[in-house]
Amino acid sequence: MPELKAGDAFPEGVTFSYIPYTPEISDVTVCGRPQNYDVSKNLADKKVVIVAIPGAFTPTCSSAHLPSYIANIDKLKAKGVDHVIFIAHNDAFVMSGWGKVNGVKDDSILFMSDPNVAFSSQIGWAGPERANRYAIVVDHGKVIYAAKEVDPGIALTGAEAVLARL
Fold first, then answer.
1. Per-residue model confidence as pLDDT tens digits over 101-121
2. Strands of 15-18's sheet in order across
3. Number of domains present in the structure of the chain
4. Is residue 1 part of a domain?
5. Could you tell me if residue 86 is inside a domain?
6. Domain limits for position 80
7. Which of 19, 50, 53, 61 is catalytic?
8. Is 31 considered catalytic here?
9. How far apart are CA 73 and CA 156, in angstroms?
10. Which DSSP helix (H) or strand (E) runs through 119?
11. What are 11-67's pLDDT values in tens digits?
12. Which of 122, 104, 137, 117 is nearest to 13 (CA)?
């Protein structure tokens, strides 16, 4: 499959793994159970931003990328975004823990695993073991924005860049 671009339909059969946040597992030392999230099905009737990162707890991801979305979640919601989904090669436990230590306590930002970087590889935006840094906005199953960072940083994939495209 070629890289996704605006106007493309979001691919069928995309599944991520995640642990939904609940108050019962809000403590970072408590784990929930991973479950599959049928991305293709769930994006059919929502507006969602998918943000791929090289890894949870990595420098740029933790100091800039995720904070940009936490700081702008209300602006994204005002533009009709139902969820922001952060994906990485990390398993669902690590992704859930990353969300917890960053104080995300609802489903406005979801933290999911792209096992074996399967989806990122499918669209050609992965290295040998990790996803490239990218953002895709999907509106009711249709891609309206897709960008991959070429240079270090979040110029094309941070919340401010995505907001400018909505």
1. 999 999 999 999 999 999 999
2. 35-38, 15-18, 109-113, 83-88, 47-52, 134-139, 142-148
3. 1
4. no
5. yes
6. 8-164
7. 61
8. no
9. 17
10. helix 118-122
11. 999 999 999 999 999 999 999 999 999 999 999 999 999 999 999 999 999 999 999
12. 122
